[in-house]
Amino acid sequence: MSDTNEKMISVQGAVFPLEKLLNMAKTAMQQAYVPYSNFPVGSALITKNGNVYSGCNVENASYGLTCCAERVAIFKAVTEGNRDIKALAVIGNTELPCSPCGACRQVMYEFNPDMEVYIANKDGDYVKTYAGELLPAQFDSRMLNQESE
Ligand code: THU
Predict the structure, then answer these.
(1) 46 in a domain, yes or no?
(2) Within a domain: residue 140?
């Protein structure tokens, strides 16, 4: 695992400190609505043009309606017209880095297989990977375009 020591994320004509993205994710984690699991998660992403969005997990009494922090952040970006996601951070109040669930991996892959993904623990120690690495053999739009016999 690495710590943040001044690592920068390159976006259009600028750089953005990874530490800032992780702090945004941590701040978002404080807003998590988690009465059922008591497991807060925070996420923050930066788009290729330098816009940032954050998300927290939002649970529901009908458990399956819960939305993860990563998807909240991604859906906020997409709603604001920013689909080109360069990097996403996710953090849990955990000892181990909070690894994204399968659904979130599929959604990350949709918007950028090369998306940098920083998976962090409560101290901000992180593992860096990519959306495409997190989800091998993903379902993608090519599957939809096949003729059936
Ligand atoms: N959760 C996330 O927000 N992101 C993940 O990638 C894994 C799980 C949330 C969903 C639920 O609110 C809680 O963590 C426990 O599963």
Answers:
(1) yes
(2) no
Q: Would the pTM count as exceeding 0.90?
A: yes
- Cross-strand partners of 117: 88, 129
CATH code: domain of residue 89: 3.40.140.10
Ligand 1 pocket, 72 CB below 6 A? no
* Domain assignment present for 1: no
Supply the pLDDT for residue 147: 77
Whole-angstrom CA distances from 93 to 7, 70, 149 are 22, 15, 50
Domain span holding position 83: 9-132
Tally the domains of the chain.
Answer: 1
The set of catalytic residues is: 70
Q: Which of 94, 99, 101 to mutate to test the pocket of ligand 1 (most atoms within 8 A of CB)?
A: 101
| Res 1: pLDDT | 72
Whether residue 115 has its Cβ less than 6 Å from ligand 1: no
Mutate to test the pocket of ligand 1, among 26, 41, 104 (most ligand atoms within 8 A of CB): 41
Tokens (6 digits) for 116:
């940098």
Whether 72 and 59 have beta carbons less than 8 Å apart is answered as no
Residue pLDDT, tens place only, 58-104: 999 999 999 999 999 999 999 999 999 999 999 999 999 999 999 99
